[in-house]
Design a protein that fits this description.
Length: 447
């Protein structure tokens, strides 16, 4: 099964996926679509993603948009630019926004000093209100996260923190240039829990160069001891044609498809034995965590920030390369800091490209969202989808014969055996992927 289905495929944080955006809106069209969604959904609240791209060193496995520097004088000008972008948005909105969710991603958000993080969040909230049941979270590097930063963000309303752990094996850490000790991770975890953070997440990666079953066992052993509330156990995405830093090692250093899947199954078994529940693709949570509660109630949501408990329809992305989503339209900001700042100083929204979703896109997006969050979807009484169903059913036939899914009365259910292959199942629904097969590799492997 692993050999058969280990093909290049999207991770489906959106549909259509970014390489298939083909009808980019003008700024005015984007703002009009964004405002329509705001008017209909602001009572429930909106989400903000803020990209803070700076890191002091390059982690060679990383596929994110980053800027490497040890010069911290870049902090204040960048935050001022982000706040300028936010003010431009709030001046367009026909009402005061209610913030339901904020996520600080990177890069390394804790590259920024406490006073600058406070300046950023105070500036965001001065232009908005906080919705009920809000959730604020951020990503932190264990080596560059201080107790003062954790306390500062806690006082500003943050209750979720995600620490990038990846692997505790010294050989793996060396080759990916991400060296951090168990004790350092323990220290920042204890700081967060003692301050009052209710959800501490660890990012772990399987399929890294030089990674073995012994290193996975050692990593999960320490993770179980440290007891984070959530764990994202990601598949390493090898895309050296996009991220040249990954050329520090070669495919020969990586576990094969079967070896890689065995690393996941080993880690998964150890996590489940420790009380963690697999709540979505690559994600685990303790039963006391709100992510598990959302999973049991079929309330999980998935967007460019990954899995979340908030089902907001409007996501505004601030900062370089950030993606905004009005549910019927995507736009992405420019990817270079200098260009981003220049456009803002000229009074222009720093948008690079986007995509307006068709009725067919929206229908397929709904099914892929349900598969990724609930491992099932239904098209009962849905005439629009049934018109598109022929090719999809044909593509699902072999997956069904292999026991990865069941289809009964217009309802598809992913089996336990099929959960590791949910990306492959989603690909069967992806009309754009099948209408225009890429000429070169643009996605990482699904297994």
């Amino acid at each position: 099964m692993i050999r058969k289905y280990n093909v290049a495929g999207p991770r489906y944080t959106s549909y259509p996926t970014v390489p298939y955006w083909d009808n980019s809106p003008g700024i005015e069209s984007w703002l009009n679509l964004m405002k329509e969604t705001f008017i209909s959904t602001n009572s429930n609240g909106i989400s903000l993603y803020i990209h803070l791209p700076y890191c002091e060193s390059l982690c060679t496995y990383c596929g994110c948009n980053t800027r490497i520097t040890v010069n911290h004088s870049v902090e204040l000008p960048y935050i001022q630019a982000v706040l300028k972008e936010w003010k431009m948005y709030t001046h367009q909105l026909p009402g005061r926004p209610k913030i339901r969710e904020i996520h600080l991603g990177g890069g390394t958000p804790t590259f920024f000093k406490s006073e600058n993080l406070k300046l950023l969040i105070d500036g965001i909230l001065s232009e908005s209100d906080i919705a009920e049941n809000f959730e604020f979270g951020f990503e932190g590097h264990p080596n560059y996260t201080s107790e003062d930063q954790l306390l500062t963000l806690y006082k500003l309303g943050f209750r979720r923190v995600s620490f990038g752990v990846q692997d505790f094996d010294p050989k793996v850490q060396s080759v990916i240039n991400r060296i951090q000790s168990v004790e350092q991770v323990r220290t920042v975890t204890n700081w967060a829990k003692n301050i009052g953070y209710t959800s501490v997440n660890y990012d772990l990666i399987y399929g890294l160069p030089l990674q073995t079953q012994a290193s996975i066992k050692n990593t999960i052993f320490h993770v179980r001891e440290l007891q984070p509330h959530r764990i994202a156990f990601y598949s390493y995405a090898h895309v050296p044609w996009v991220k040249p830093g990954q050329r520090r090692f070669t495919e020969l250093d990586l576990p094969s498809g079967e070896e890689k899947r065995n690393l996941y199954e080993l880690g998964r078994a150890m996590l489940e034995d420790a009380g963690y529940v697999e709540i979505g693709m690559d994600h685990f949570a303790l039963k006391s965590d709100t992510l598990f509660e959302a999973y049991t109630k079929n309330n999980l949501h998935r967007n460019f920030m990954g899995y979340t408990t908030n089902d907001t329809k409007l996501l505004i992305g601030l900062g370089v390369s950030s993606i905004s989503d009005s549910w019927n339209c995507f736009v992405q900001n420019v990817k270079v800091v200098e260009q981003y700042v220049k456009l803002l100083n000229e009074g222009s929204f720093p948008i690079l490209k986007g995509h307006i979703l068709s009725a067919e896109d929206l229908e397929i997006r709904k099914h892929i969202q349900e598969l990724m969050c609930n491992f099932e979807t239904s098209w009962t009484g849905n005439s629009l989808f049934k018109e598109m169903l022929g090719g999809t059913i044909d593509r699902l036939k072999e997956l069904k014969e292999d026991g990865l899914l069941k289809i009964n009365n217009d309802k598809l259910i992913v089996t336990e055996k099929g959960r590791p292959f949910v990306r492959n199942i989603c690909m069967a629904f992806d009309q754009r992927l099948w209408a225009r097969q890429p000429d070169s590799v643009i996605f990482s492997s699904t297994v």
